[in-house]
């Protein structure tokens, strides 16, 4: 009897703490409909910070001044060096970006090589089930067509994401996103030099928003020591992106769109100076080489 | 008293465990993009529950056109409200219920219930085409309505806890650049 009372009290306290920790309680009539406008910001019990895949960030193949440079890829031979979970998970993302880059330029051999690297590293972190028989067969029968290379690269990425979500490995997902973003940026900043009004340089500046989302995503998972460590590693990047000013433009040329489309964003531009560009490049190279164990 | 407490404990335990175990990773797996659109990696689905409030922060890049669609498990009966805010300008660009009986779910008035397209001669799932003129973040606010209050045989009132999946499908395509 006494044990039941104690158990009940502890349980109810736990539930109360849990409820208040997650959201405010609401005393609403069942028939009442909740509307977005009536909800306070603090009541949002879960916020998802989304980060695009390496291929979606730059669409490598469509950017005219981006080329394929083999020497920029993280060598597959580095695989053996990654003997901690942090390095394995972050380089899982790094190799995924190298895979997307190789596929976008129709490099069959590199695509195959980096698919194998992603597979090898996925085995180390317990994700080998993603590489099922049908995916293995697709890798084996890999064509030379760029679209089919990109398709297998994207499908693998989506399968991995789905698997990580299904198994609730959000910390791994955060590190994969961080590694993928870092390697994508490493590739791009090494392919261009600063030019005013260069669209790729502008895209690098525009990464401020995506990086902020990534940083908040990492921040949500600081309970994991590996995520915390990468979050700290990324701090210099946060400092640089925070310095980039967002300016309002007086007027912008109209986009060629039809009336049924919703235009968003307003007339803003993220401005990056030449000095900031090269500082950002240096920091990206430094962090990338630190986390991939490459010497500069 | 003991019975009531035990019931509350069991019900709470059941719903907490159920929500954590619900697998939404494949909820959108069958959604395919129609060319020229391709499925964006920003597409996301996650578990939700009645009375829950969720926010998605979606970064949009210039040079792309996005198509956004919302999906939810039938268990929610479309009782979900969607609001989309452009973070750059603070403007609310969409503010829609899941279904809208007053308009018969006419195009642009509901986020989940399909509308009848006269030209295509078929039902179409609502979609919203969005073009960023500057890079921005879309804040998608998802508010699931409370479940109706029910009364059990003993006359006690209780609220069902409805759980299910909520998904935001994002498609994208490159658009020609104009200007610099």
What low-confidence regions of chain B span 5 or more consecutive residues with pLDDT below 50? none
Number of strands of chain A: 4
Question: How would you describe the shape of chain B?
Answer: globular
Number of helices of chain A: 11
Radius of gyration of chain B in whole Å, from Cα?
Answer: 19 Å
Largest sheet of chain B: 5 strands, antiparallel
The Rg value of chain A, from CA coordinates, equals 23 Å
Strand content of chain B: 35-45%
Task: Give the ordered list of helices and strands of chain B.
Answer: HEEEEEEEEEEEEE
Largest sheet of chain A: 2 strands, antiparallel
Mean pLDDT of chain A: 83
Structural class of chain A: mainly alpha
Succession of helices and strands of chain A: HEHHHHHHHHHEEEH
Give the helix proportion of chain B (percent range).
10-25%
What structural category characterises the helix and strand content of chain B? mainly beta
* CATH architecture descriptor name of chain B: Sandwich
Strand segment tally of chain B: 13
Write a short abstract of this structure.
The complex is a heterodimer of chains A (296) and B (180). With 296 residues, chain A is mainly α.
Describe this entry's structure for a reader.
The complex is a heterodimer of chains A (296) and B (180). Chain A is mainly α. Chain A has one domain (48-255, 264-292). Chain A contains eleven helices and four strands. Chain A has helices at 2-22, 54-58, 85-104, 108-124, 133-140, 146-166, 170-189, 199-219, 225-233, 235-243, 274-292; strands at 46-49, 245-248, 262-264, 268-271. Chain A has a two-stranded antiparallel sheet with strand order 2-4. In chain A, helix 3 runs antiparallel to helix 4 (108-124), helix 3 runs antiparallel to helix 6 and helix 7 (170-189) packs across helix 11 (274-292). The longest helix of chain A has 21 residues, at 2-22. Chain B is mostly beta strands. Chain B has a single domain (2-174), classed as Jelly Rolls, CATH 2.60.120. Helix content of chain B is 11%, strand content 42%. Chain B contains one helix and 13 strands; from the N terminus they run H-E-E-E-E-E-E-E-E-E-E-E-E-E. Chain B has one helix at 2-21, and strands spanning 38-39, 44-49, 53-60, 64-72, 80-86, 92-97, 115-117, 122-124, 128-132, 136-144, 149-151, 157-159, 163-174. The longest helix of chain B has 20 residues, at 2-21. The mean pLDDT of chain B is 87. The chains are: A mainly alpha (296), B mainly beta (180). The interface between A and B is large, with 70 and 71 residues.
């Amino acid at each position: 009897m006494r044990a039941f009372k104690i158990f009940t009290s502890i349980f109810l306290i736990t539930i109360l703490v849990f409820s208040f920790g997650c959201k405010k309680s609401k005393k609403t009539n069942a028939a009442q409909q909740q509307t977005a406008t009536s909800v306070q910001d603090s009541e949002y019990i879960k916020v998802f910070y989304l980060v695009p895949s390496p291929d979606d960030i730059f669409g490598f193949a469509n950017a005219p001044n981006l080329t394929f440079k083999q020497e920029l890829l993280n060598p597959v031979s580095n695989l053996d060096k990654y003997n901690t979970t942090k390095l394995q998970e972050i380089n899982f993302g790094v190799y995924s970006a190298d895979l997307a880059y190789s596929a976008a330029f129709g490099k069959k051999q590199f695509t195959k090589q980096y698919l194998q690297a992603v597979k090898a590293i996925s085995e180390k972190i317990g994700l080998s089930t993603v590489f099922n028989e049908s995916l293995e067969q697709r890798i084996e029968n890999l064509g030379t067509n760029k679209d089919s290379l990109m398709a297998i690269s994207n499908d693998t990425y989506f399968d991995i994401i789905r698997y990580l979500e299904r198994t609730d490995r959000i910390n791994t997902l955060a590190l994969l996103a961080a590694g993928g973003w870092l390697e994508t940026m490493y590739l791009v900043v090494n392919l261009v030099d600063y030019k005013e009004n260069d669209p790729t340089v502008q895209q690098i500046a525009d990464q401020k928003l995506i990086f902020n989302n990534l940083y908040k995503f990492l921040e949500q998972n600081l309970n994991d020591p590996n995520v915390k460590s990468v979050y700290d590693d990324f701090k210099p990047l946060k400092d640089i992106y925070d310095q980039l000013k967002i300016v309002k433009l007086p007027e912008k040329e109209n986009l060629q769109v039809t009336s049924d489309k919703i235009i968003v964003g307003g007339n803003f531009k993220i401005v990056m100076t030449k000095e900031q560009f090269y500082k950002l490049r240096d920091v990206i190279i430094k962090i990338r080489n630190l986390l991939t164990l490459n010497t500069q | 008293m003991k019975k009531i407490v035990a019931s509350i404990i069991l019900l709470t335990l059941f719903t907490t465990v159920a929500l954590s175990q619900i697998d939404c990773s494949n909820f959108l797996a069958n959604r395919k993009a129609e060319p020229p659109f391709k499925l964006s990696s920003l597409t996301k689905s996650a578990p939700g529950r009645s009375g829950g409030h969720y926010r998605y922060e979606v970064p949009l890049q210039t040079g792309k056109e996005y198509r956004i669609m919302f999906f939810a498990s039938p268990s929610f009966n479309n009782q979900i409200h969607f609001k989309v805010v452009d973070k750059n300008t603070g403007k609310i660009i969409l503010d829609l219920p899941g279904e809208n009986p007053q308009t018969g779910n006419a195009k642009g008035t509901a986020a989940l219930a399909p509308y009848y397209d006269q030209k295509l001669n078929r039902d179409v799932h609502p979609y919203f085409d969005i073009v960023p003129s500057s890079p921005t973040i879309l804040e998608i606010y998802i508010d699931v309505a409370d479940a109706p209050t029910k009364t059990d045989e003993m006359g006690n009132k209780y609220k069902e806890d409805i759980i299910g999946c909520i998904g935001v499908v994002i498609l994208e395509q490159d658009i020609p650049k104009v200007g610099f």
